[in-house]
Every structure is written in C-alpha cells, then in structure tokens.
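Long-time lurker. I teach an intro course on protein structure, and each term I like to show students one example going from raw sequence to a predicted 3D structure in token notation. This year I'd like something fresh instead of my usual example. Would anyone be willing to generate the tokens for the chain below so I can use it in lecture? Attribution to the forum is fine with me.
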Amino acid sequence: MKYPAVLILSCCAVFLSKGAIAAGDAEAGGKLFTKTCGGCHSIGVNARNGFGPQLNGVIGRQAGTSEGYLYSDAMKNSGVVWTREKLAAYIEAPKKVVSGTRMIFWGISDQEKIDNLLAYIESVQGQ
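-- Reply from a regular --
Happy to contribute to a lecture. Here you go:
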C-alpha cells in the first residue's frame, strides 16, 4: 500500500516542477524588462507613470485604469482584465489583444522570454 502513495507523490513532484519551469525565470525576466520595457514602463517600489503606465499590480487589474496615466480610448474601452494569460498574449502581439493601442511595441514571439517577463512582473508586483 505504500508504493501507490509514493508513486502519486512522485508524479505530483514531477508535475509541480514542470509547472515551475514553465512559469519562467524572474531574474532573466528582469534583465529583459530593462531592455525591452523599461524605457517606457516602471515597476516596483519607486515605480511611476512615464511614457507608459507603471505596472505595479497590473496582473488582475482592468486595462486602462492605472491612476494618473492618460490611456488611449482603445485601452480604456477594451474590457480587458490583465490575467497572466492575457498579458502573455499582449506581450506577444499587443494590437491583436487591444486593437488601436498606442503602445509602440512589435511584440515578443519567444514563449520563454514571455514567461520570464511575466515571472519578473509577478515577483515585483505589489512590492
């Protein structure tokens, strides 16, 4: 009877470790954020709106609602709530998620880089 329990726990450990890998590398994401996003956006303790809105608390937030930032009508009226999945889609192809967005960004097609960015955003969100 001990063997089925060990087998189940082993399978769970493998499943969870694969999920952790799929979640991305926050450190690599931080470096990528600085290169690709940091010119317009900030996140973390001293984040402020700039050319783009600050991204603290972005996951779970309604698009176009960060206080103090002037959004396009397309973003304000998009009805988008920034889940991890929706943000991943936006990072990949912004204009496909919010047609008419003013954000000038071609997108990132590399899923690993997207996962890394999201891991970084999740790690500093709420600091």
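Some talking points for your students: The chain has a mean pLDDT of 86. The domain at 24-124 is CATH 1.10.760.10 (Cytochrome Bc1 Complex; Chain D, domain 2).
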